[in-house]
Structures are given as C-alpha cells and as structure tokens.
Design a protein that fits this description.
binds calcium ion, Spore Coat Polysaccharide Biosynthesis Protein SpsA, Chain A, nine-stranded parallel beta sheet, UDP N-Acetylglucosamine Acyltransferase, domain 1, MobA-like_NTP_Trfase, UDP-N-acetylglucosamine diphosphorylase activity, single chain, binds uridine-diphosphate-N-acetylglucosamine, seven-stranded mixed beta sheet, 3 domains
Length: about 500
C-alpha cells in the first residue's frame, strides 16, 4: 500500500450510553477538560487523516452541535437505529462515498485514554505489514464483557468472539478486542455487506470482519499493546471517575517529568491542554483547568481553581478562584481572591485577601491588598487601593468604569461611584465616597468632619454596660489628670 493512500477514521458514537443515567449523552461528558468524544477525535486527528467521520444516533442533536463546536470538519453520519458496530461502520463508510480507497481506522467515541501515538503506531504496523485488516488488542485481568481474540496454534488471529457467543474455553482467553480496527476500505465496504446478525445479540458485529478476512485467506493481524487502559471505554459514572483519575495521573506525571513540582499529585487536577513552565510549584488541592497557561518559577495553590487563566513567570497564586484572567509576572493573588473574567493583574501587582475583581486592569505594581471589590476598573501603575474599597460599577442599569491614575492612593473604605476618574498621583481620604473626578495630585475627602458629643451614653443609655464602662474609664481619666496637673 502506498504512503499516499488516504486514511479515514470512523468514530463510533451512536450507542445509547443508558448506564450513565444522564440527560447528557455519554460521549459529551467531560474528562480532563475535554468531552470523551473530544478525546477520541484528538486521537483520530493525531494520525493526520484525510477524512474523519463520526457516527451519531442517540441524542444526536446534542452530539451534532458539540461536534460543530469542537471539530467542524468532521463528517457527521447518522445511524438511525443502533443495529450493531458493523452496521455503524457501514453507515460511516457510506458517508464517504463509494469511491473511497485507502485505509479505514475505527475508534470508539467513549474511549478517552487512547493516545494519538498509539493509534499512529497501530496504523504504521497495519500498513508496514500490508494487512487487509488489523485489530488492536490488549491482555487484561478481567476480560469479562469483551470480545476475545482467538488465535491459531501458530499465533495467527482466527477470529474475535463476543462474550455472549463464546464457548467456555474461549471465555478463558484474556486477550481482548479493543474495538479499534484498521482495514482496507475497498475490501471492507464489500465485506461489511456479508456481515449478518445471526448471533446471541442479533446485532451486526464489526468483529465478523475478522473471520471474513480469515476465510478469504487475507492477511490479518493483531497489534497488542501493554497499556490496556488506553483501550478502556466508559459506560458508567464510576468508570468515568476512574478513567478521569487515570488521565489526571498521566497528565500530572507528564508535568512533573518536565520539571514542575507537584506536591500532592492526588489532590492536583490538571486538564489536558494546560501548559506549565519549569520550576513552578503546584501546592495541594489545586485545579488547573481549560486552556490555562502557567509560566516558570510560579507558585500556585494551595486550594486554587484556575480556569482559562494566564499566570506569568514567578507569580504567586494562593487560595485563588479565577477564570479568563491574567496574573502578570511576579504578581501575587490571595489568599481568598476571586478573579472574574477580564481581570489583568500587572507585573508585580497584587490582589490580596478577600478581594473580588471583575473586568479590571491593574497596571505594573498596582495593588488592591485587602477586602475590596474592584469591578470594571482601570488601576494605573503603582496605584494602591485601600482596604475595604468598593468600585460601585453598577448604577442599576449600566455598568460604568472607574479609572485610578498611576501612583494614586485611594484610602481605606472608599466607595468610588462610577463612572469616575481619580487622576495620576491623586489621594483620597479615609471613608470617602468619590462621585466626582479628582484632578491629578489633588486630595479628595468627602466624609464630614467628626462631631463628638460628650456624655451622650450616660444621658441616653444610662445603666447599660456601655455607660458603666464609660464611667469607669472617665473616673480613671480624671484621677490621671489630677496627677498630671499636680506634677506639671
Ligand atoms: C465491542 C466489540 C467487542 C469489544 C468491545 C470493546 C463488537 C461486536 N464488539 O463490544 O469485541 O471487545 O467493543 O469495548 O464490535 N455503536 C454504534 N452503533 C451501534 C452499536 C455501537 O455507534 O449500533 C458504538 C457505541 O456507541 C460504542 C461502540 O460502538 O461507542 C461500541 O459499542 P458497544 O455496544 O459498547 O460494543 P460492545 O458490546 O462493548
Ligand atoms: Ca462498550
């Protein structure tokens, strides 16, 4: 077979998945940041195929929409009735037209751990041996439920027999059919027409292709892999969790081997598309999700959840919950910081304890250290926002912006009523409510001057513990005054 012969991958995803007991179709359930189907397609794309077909049926609107989002170039073939894997592949093949030649590879939409490299190696093995058909197999401890690979005395493959059709002797075979198959397209199109449904399940079995090829004395072979989990499918949520943990274990290990310190791999969850720089440390209880990227020499965690975030080199992100935001190089967040979408912390900037930020840009070295809400803001380089400050960005109808100039000092417990502008180098007083723009270098105060009414508690709240405490303090104060008066 020439190198130029096209490769077509057919992904089977029409089955019911009823054991998930879910409104969501099985293959759409997420694992490590991708749907199960997304993983299968990722493996399929790894062999640089000329065509990719996904066979859909159950809950097909959901699956179709998802496919259009994640891989719009996939051909969608509809299998109206789930008559078996052989029928599903025939439907997929038909969608590519009668003229299709080359190699067809079949994978399952519910097998998430299949590595692109494995599929590539399988395809290379199939082509280099010039086989009509190859099947990917593995030996497992518990082969129950799988099709068994029956071999002749000389080791050559003679058939795959389904559990329900197997003899007692065949059931003792521990080499299983992964379901992943490669075959010659022209041959397969014809052979699939010969597949019947006279078996224990009344289904058109894809696996019948193997005995058909053997009967025709065509070259057939098995490609056995050691890493059986790559062939495992998800049928229940119990398996979903187990496979997700295994996927995570592999991802975390890959990062550790690339120079990332992961203090507790068991409580660290990293999605498959995340990138992390060298000598970054991930502390326990941390989830790094979606398309998050983390630079080198950063510290993330403990107990942080970062989704689609960009974390710069040397940043420190402690007990932080953030999405679609940027933390610049050398910047710090946390503990207990909430970064909502559109937030950017400048280099060496800070969002400190109990701070919520949304759609706000902090310049280089700008700081919001304590107990604040900064929404729809622009905070200039080197500016500092005092503890307990609120950007009142919402007037009940519109969201408005608050601009704080470079090196400005907003004092504690301010309310900035947007839209409002505090100029470069301006100061505000403690407890101010800033409704009007502040010129560069000005001081704005808005709290009234303090008025103290002496003896108010004794007159208005007589006999209360407060009044008694005040009376005690005042009498001590009086005697102190006496002493001071007599000595001065
Ligand atoms: C199949 C294999 C079995 C193998 C096992 C590996 C056959 C006959 N048996 O069994 O040898 O060990 O997979 O997991 O092939 N599907 C469709 N349309 C259908 C039927 C199935 O799209 O009409 C899809 C399912 O969505 C699923 C895949 O094909 O992704 C496998 O179907 P399933 O019913 O799970 O096959 P098994 O009985 O497990
Ligand atoms: Ca199955």
């Amino acid at each position: 077979m020439s190198e130029q012969a096209p490769v077509s991958v057919i992904v089977l995803a029409a089955g019911g998945g009823t054991r998930m007991r879910s409104k969501t179709m099985k293959v759409l359930h997420p694992l490590a940041g991708r749907s199960l189907l997304g993983h299968a397609l990722h493996a399929a794309r790894g062999v640089a195929p000329d065509h990719v077909v996904t066979v859909i049926g159950n809950q097909r609107e959901q699956v179709s929409e998802h496919l259009a989002q994640i891989d719009p170039d996939v051909v969608q073939a509809v299998q109206d009735q789930q008559l078996g894997t052989g029928h599903a592949v025939a439907v997929g093949l038909a969608s590519l037209g009668d003229a299709l030649a080359g190699t067809v590879v079949v994978v399952y939409g519910d097998v998430p751990l299949l590595a692109p490299e494995t599929l590539e190696a399988f395809l290379d093995d199939h082509r280099s041996h010039g086989r009509t058909l190859s099947v990917l197999t593995a030996r497992v401890d518990d082969p129950h439920g799988y099709g068994r690979v029956v071999r002749n005395a000389d080791g050559s493959v003679s058939a795959v027999v389904e559990e329900k059709d197997a003899t007692d002797e065949q059931r003792t075979i521990d080499e299983i059919n992964s379901g992943i198959l490669a075959f010659d397209a022209v041959w397969g199109r014809d052979a699939l027409r010969q597949v019947g449904n006279d078996n224990a399940q009344g289904e058109y079995y894809l696996t019948d292709l193997i005995s058909i090829a053997v009967t025709q004395s065509r070259p057939v072979g098995a490609y056995e892999i050691d890493d059986a989990v790559q062939t495992e499918g998800v049928n229940t949520r119990v398996q979903l969790a187990r496979m997700a943990a295994e996927a995570n274990r592999r991802i975390v290990e890959r990062h550790m081997l690339a120079g990332v310190t992961v203090v507790d791999p068991d409580t660290t969850w990293i999605d498959v598309d995340v990138s992390i720089g060298q000598d970054t440390t991930i502390l326990p209880g941390t989830q790094v999700l979606g398309a998050t990227t983390i630079g080198a020499d950063a510290v993330v965690g403990p107990d942080s959840t970062l989704t689609d975030m960009e974390i710069g080199d040397g940043a420190s992100v402690v007990r932080t919950h953030g999405s679609l935001s940027v933390v610049g190089a050398g910047a710090t967040t946390g503990p207990f910081t909430y970064l909502r979408p559109g937030t950017t912390v400048g280099e060496r900037g800070k969002l400190g304890a109990f701070v919520e930020a949304k759609n706000t840009r902090l310049g280089v070295g700008a700081k919001v250290p304590h107990l604040s809400y900064v929404g729809d803001g622009d905070i200039g380089d080197g500016a500092n926002i005092g503890a307990g400050t609120i950007f009142a960005n919402y007037d009940g109808v519109n969201k408005n912006r608050t601009r704080i100039g470079a090196q400005a000092r907003v004092s504690s417990n301010n309310t900035l009523v947007a839209p409002v502008d505090v100029g470069d180098g301006a100061f505000t007083g403690a407890g101010a409510t800033i409704r009007e723009d502040v010129e560069p270098g000005a001081l704005a105060v808005s709290a009234g001057s303090q008025r103290t009414i002496e003896g108010w508690v004794a007159r208005k709240r007589p006999g209360t513990p407060s009044a008694e405490a005040a009376e005690r303090a005042l009498s001590e104060h009086d005697s102190d005054d006496d002493v001071q008066e007599s000595t001065s």
